[in-house]
């Protein structure tokens, strides 16, 4: 009688553990860079949204000849734009992990937890206004309105 050998194909438990360990090391190395990239995207998109909403509010004030009110609510982590013009109300809420750290210019003795209000007057000078944004990794950006050009801009603080 001839015996036939049975061949079995498959993975042993040790091989599976080695593969899982290699994948775990790769994820452990890549995870910090992925989250750092996501945090950078969030703060950049928040600053871009604030800039576009500032510009929209300034254009609205000039074209419709109505004042636009800007309310910066640090506690609620949002900005509100409104005017007497019916239907104009915009709210910009900061994404997760991005906070409004300071409202510029700083006013000594002012309670920072209270909302700050600014007005954009049609044909008037642009208010001196800046917002310092911060993400979880302490990356900071300042979104400010240039008083000379009237345009909003994003700068990195020194």
Assembly status: single chain
- Secondary-structure-based class equals alpha+beta
Query: How many helix segments?
Result: 1
* Parts with pLDDT < 50 across at least 5 consecutive residues: none
Topology:
Blueprint: H1 13-64, E1 68-73, E2 78-83, E3 89-93, E4 98-104, E5 116-120, E6 130-135, E7 140-145, E8 152-155
Antiparallel strand pairs: 1-2, 1-5, 2-3, 4-6, 6-7, 7-8
What does this protein look like?
- The mean pLDDT is 88.
- This protein has a single domain, classed as 3-Layer(bab) Sandwich (minor pseudopilin epsh fold).
- With 158 residues, the chain is α+β, with helices and mostly antiparallel strands.
- The protein has one helix and eight strands, in the order αββββββββ.
- The strands form two sheets. The protein has a four-stranded antiparallel β-sheet, covered by helices on one side.
- The longest helix is centred in the first third of the chain and has 52 residues, at 13-64.
- The radius of gyration is 26 Å and the shape is elongated.
């Amino acid at each position: 009688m001839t015996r036939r050998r049975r061949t079995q194909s498959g993975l042993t438990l040790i091989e599976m553990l080695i593969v899982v360990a290699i994948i775990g090391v790769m994820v452990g190395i890549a995870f910090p860079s992925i989250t750092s990239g996501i945090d950078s995207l969030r703060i950049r998109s928040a600053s871009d949204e604030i800039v576009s909403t500032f510009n929209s509010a300034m254009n609205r004030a000039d074209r419709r000849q109505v004042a636009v009110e800007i309310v910066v609510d640090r506690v609620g982590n949002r900005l509100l734009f409104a005017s007497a013009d019916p239907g104009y109300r915009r709210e910009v809420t900061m994404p997760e992990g991005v906070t409004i750290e300071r409202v510029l210019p700083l006013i000594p003795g002012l309670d920072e937890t209270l909302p700050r209000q600014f007005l954009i007057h049609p044909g008037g000078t642009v208010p001196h206004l800046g917002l310092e944004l911060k993400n979880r990794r302490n990356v900071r950006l300042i979104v400010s309105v240039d008083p000379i050009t009237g345009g909003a801009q994003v700068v990195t603080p020194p």
